[in-house]
Design goal:
single chain, 352 residues, alpha/beta, Nucleotidyltransferase, domain 5, 2 domains, five-stranded mixed beta sheet, globular
Amino acid sequence: MIAEQLIKESWVTEGARGHAPRGRRPRFLHLNQERVGIIGINIRPAATKIVLADLDAHFTAQESMPTAQNPEVFIEELCSRLSNLIKTHPGTYYEGIGVSLPGRVDLASQKLVFAPNLGWKNVDLKTPLEKATGLPVELENAANACALAEVWFGRHTEGVRDLIAVTVSEGIGGGMIMNGQLVRGSTGAAGEFGHISLIPDGLECRCGNRGCWELYASNSAGVRYYTQAVSPGRAGRAGARPDESMPTFDDVLRLAGQGDAKANEAIDQMAHYLGAGLAQLITGLAPDVIVLVGEVTRLWSRIGPIIDGVVKSRSFTHAKTRIVPADPSAQPRLRGTIALVLQKHFGAPSVA
């Protein structure tokens, strides 16, 4: 009965008949990789990526678009992109759409309610996307999506029941798998570690708090450190939208890789504060693994020892937490959007 349901829903196809020494010959069943597709969307302040993936999260089509600052304009443009994507793959049975967001989604209303780095509040993406495509849409915070991606497709979760994914981008987010379950909190707000004060009475954050962790350890912080070093008058206010004339974080990473002293100092300072924040997570939650997600992991050979050193100097419990980098080329945020749709049908894979 289960197999018949999966065949009816196009998840599974029937293949050739096998051989048996007696009784009815068995029929081989296969996952329908060719016809079943899942659309994944990763929204970030500068750009949004859209992918079409199969059931193993292999991307068969991928495109990018600017993220408009006005949410209504952005949603209209995104709906148009999705309609075109669906039309260009007419032979595909679309199972759903997963969306990764740089903020928190209210569980009751399914609206994006907290996204300081986007500047959006109380935005309904689910309704217009479902109306435009006719497909069910699953929304999730980017860090939660990355935690799910690690459980479904990652290399660090065998035998792991407690895991935290820390996303380092324009801000910092946290996604928690505790006792094998994704932790969202009663409203969906759990895991906003990036907006916990690391420095009392520190820099003012766009969230309204001061001294937030992400003001000192995010990509934006790395750009600020570098800009302050090379041109103090152009650094700008912490948490402000970047000036187009300022270097990007990719620029800082490239310069650091080429041995630029000021770029390396900026990355080192960023790594120091990453370690300071991670030490608090380890002391408070003692996960088995912390997976660090973000472009900064390209320089893991440099930042890894700095992070480990700061953690050892600040966390004195007997927790045996491993801190590991995610593979940037695997695009964990996008893979997490595929996991969002898969888990609705198959449930989270066992991590026992």
